[in-house]
């Protein structure tokens, strides 16, 4: 009947946000928006331009020249930065280890936050990140805060990179904890559970189960909205 809602999924690294958000969007026929990919694209671009995360003036100017586009496809999402495909580059270790520092910058957050709000204007969006329910889309009809133990999250990442990146499980756990801390402690729109966000602990939950739980919650919201 054309009734659509916006769904915000926030939480720490490796909680399963992107995997689950993509499935939920697919099942509802909604658009999935990975805001982490946008922060990663800004980080990659700034690094390429030789601009550090503390260079506020240069960063503020740099972001105004960026055009970031997300395109959904069969093999996941493609990320374009000023027309160039940077899908692979933004997942590099160098980007992962530095993204939280760039994400703490005010101009970067304002620029991306505004872009994210525009993408959600017409509803029917599943957006995942750190500050979506708390800051970007405070009126989202459904907010989920997805967590899992740090051990489980590190293990999930380890399974993804084992044999590809020379990194141990312990290292990954340490890096994830550090990134969580930076994201939770930054001054501007930190990682926090919005008061009205539903807490979902996925430590012992398979992907399919988490996705089903969120689809069910959204159907309840949709029924209530009528
Ligand atoms: O997928 P992963 O958990 O590694 O992280 P991501 O979702 O790709 O996000 C990368 C980083 O971007 C996070 O650690 C945050 O520093 C930043 N971020 C943010 O500050 N706000 C968002 N809404 C999304 C990501
Ligand atoms: O986006 P976020 O950083 O929160 O996590 P993700 O990239 O969606 O998930 C990290 C990894 O955990 C992926 O390899 C997922 O397949 C896996 N995962 C899982 O094993 N069980 C879940 N309930 C959710 C995700």
TrEMBL record:
One of the GO biological process terms: pyrimidine nucleotide metabolic process
Domain Cytidylate kinase: 7-218
Subcellular localization, as worded in the UniProt entry: Cytoplasm
Family annotation (Pfam families): Cytidylate_kin
GO molecular function: ATP binding; CMP kinase activity; dCMP kinase activity
Family, as annotated: Belongs to the cytidylate kinase family. Type 1 subfamily.
Name of this chain's protein: Cytidylate kinase
Keywords: ATP-binding, Cytoplasm, Kinase, Nucleotide-binding, Transferase
Binding of ATP, residues: 11-19
Cellular component GO terms, alphabetical: cytosol
The species this protein was found in: Paenibacillus algorifonticola
Catalytic activity: CMP + ATP = CDP + ADP; dCMP + ATP = dCDP + ADP
Gene that this sequence comes from: cmk
UniProt superkingdom: Bacteria
E.C. no: 2.7.4.25
CDD domains recorded: CMPK (cd02020)
Record's signal peptide: none
InterPro entries: Cytidylate_kin, Cytidylate_kinase_dom, P-loop_NTPase
Enzyme class, first EC level, given as a word: transferase
